[in-house]
Design brief:
11% strand
């Protein structure tokens, strides 16, 4: 192959990759529309699990699952999805519309399971969740990420630590304010 043909091949390869990336970008941007048809992906989702009375952790709920949660008394849903990921941005907007149509309060506290709980993003999400839970004691919440495993697992671990600290503070007759509640490391 002559050296003169390489720029032409590189140009064609660049144009082809640009041409192929547009449909991929459009698919990711409209992931919420495609998501119900991605059956094998649903096999990887966890089953919702009760973290404590009134707190259910699990995977991304579609409209019918949100309606089922509403029927069981859940009036607040907290998404841990992040709008920085193009496919999750689509899911967040779809869920926001679905929740509104069902009369469910929707909150989005973005987390990233690739980062430690103590990262700025995750610590902010944990603090926001802690404030929301404190404002509505006893109210049932559904908290989720996409698969219901990683970010939801981080929240489940934080809830166990928070509840253990409260039990210890109570046993030691310490004021509840002295028990750690946020995800910040001191």
């Amino acid at each position: 192959m002559s050296v003169l043909k390489l720029p032409g091949l590189a140009l064609r390869a660049g144009l082809m990759s640009l041409f192929l990336s547009v449909p991929v970008y459009l698919a990711l941007q409209n992931f919420a529309f495609l998501e119900p048809f991605l059956y094998p992906l649903h096999l990887m989702q966890a089953t919702p699990a009760r973290a404590s009375p009134g707190l259910l952790l699990g995977p991304y709920p579609d409209h019918s699952q949100l309606a089922g949660l509403r029927g069981k008394g859940y009036k607040t849903v907290v998404s841990l999805l992040t709008p920085d990921r193009i496919y999750e941005r689509s899911l967040i907007e779809s869920e926001r519309r679905n929740a509104k149509s069902l009369g469910i309060a929707f909150y989005n506290f973005p987390m990233n399971s690739d980062l430690p709980v103590t990262s700025n993003l995750n610590a902010r999400a944990i603090e926001s969740l802690d404030r929301l839970l404190a404002r509505s004691p006893g109210q049932p919440f559904y908290i989720h990420c996409y698969l219901g495993k990683h970010r939801s697992g981080m929240v489940a671990q934080w809830l166990r630590v928070r509840d253990s600290a409260r039990v210890l503070a109570s046993a030691a007759n310490l004021p509840l304010e002295s028990a750690p509640t946020s995800g910040k490391v001191r």
